[in-house]
Amino acid sequence: MARVAVSAYAEIDVDVNNDDGRVEEGLLRSSASPVAICIIASLGLWSADASAQNYPVKPIRMLFGSTAGSGAGDMSARLLAQKMGEMLGQNVVVDNRPGAGGAIADEAAVRAPADGYTLLYAAGASAILPALRPKLPYNIERHLAPVSLVVITSFALSLHPSVPVNDVKSLIALARSQPRKLTFGSPGVGSSAHFAGELFNMMSGVRMLHVPYKGPAEATTALVGGEIDVAFPSVTAALPLIGVGKLKTLAVSSARRAPLLPSVPTIEEAGLPGYARAGWNGVLVPAATPKEIIAKLNTAIVKGINTPETKEAFTKIGIEAQTGTPEHFAAFIRSELAQNAKVIKFAGIKVE
Questions:
Q1: CA dihedral 316, 80, 111, 99 (to 10 degrees)
Q2: Mean pLDDT for the stretch of residues 40-52
Q3: pLDDT band at 136; cut points 50, 70, 90
Q4: Structural domain boundaries in the chain
């Protein structure tokens, strides 16, 4: 409780929110005029507006739920940080917070001050975790605000060369004729590639048996070695193996063809209508972040990412720039959450 003088004739006792300093409620003392009451009511708004107009005045940190140097996701985070820093005139520093499938970074972002100086570089796992772990201490839609989708990563529906099919329709027919005989591998239970495979099962009416591995490299090695029949490696991982005949890639998982494999159809084009699945990364902030700050961040992302040199850099590591408005990203997250819940129910996916 603090006492604030609003004029020579009035003081009020107010409760102040410890996180952002907003006046929440107060008890009028003395003979305050209506003008004084209006002044007090506008104090919090004035402070927030002034802060948003001057933003940013210090470095910004961007939380990312994976280890440094862990792959295309970390590389894209650092490139994004560089470009945003150039646009905003302040350093943007990547703060790696690995663990719990990304939940550690997500929760740290939820608990951060809503002042625009802590961002979350979320991954596809952020929309998988709520359905996979219903007791999470946060809600991605309620406690975080979308800024922009940044990139998507397409998966390559790939087979060991010994599997006797050469197109998606033939693979579906073979899998239907041999329930649970064909196997598909992934980097682990609950991974985006796991969900790509289970979505394929669900939408095509087949039952390939899932085999989890400890990571992307292990799953790809198992596919090349013939331990499993099918997998959904990233396009980047699949590309060098396709050229030397170690893999057969039938299609890509995304809604659009992958820039690195322009001649390879999407799974939808190849015979499974409505199928679309990709890894993704995007920026979110604590839910109470002022809209003016979100708008500035969105502009910095869209301008920084959509330059020829940045798009080319992304393409080289197998990811595709795909920015948009906060509203577009919010709708995208809702769609991902809904799809993930259906896949989990269909496949009975559980984590220990």
A1: 20
A2: 56
A3: very high
A4: 2-54, 60-149+285-335, 156-252
